[in-house]
Prior knowledge:
single chain, 115 residues, alpha+beta, Aspartate Aminotransferase, domain 1, 44% helix, YdhG-like
Amino acid sequence: MGALSELISGSPDEAAALLTRLTEAARQQLPDAIEGVSYAIPCLLHKGKPVIGFRVGAKDFSLYPFSSAVVSAAVQASPELQTTKGSIHFTLEHPLTEELIALIVERRVAEIESR
């Protein structure tokens, strides 16, 4: 079991269900991704580079695409998102969609592939 699986299994039931759904959405595009840790964040890796990671907070969740350009692309697609320069925040009541996860993964993988 990897760091992301451990995060999910250690989360309360509703949080675990949401993180499982989002992680599965990312894995649909990255079936060969491996779990790892980058900047102390449990994540999925592609070619050794972090693509998408999650943290569970007391009141919300954070998604890390490890790229401010990808955060900006996500905001363009969903202007209502709560973000910082490097993260996207969401709650159980207002979860991220599988479509947004697909966009984030697509953009981040394109960055990694272009290097």
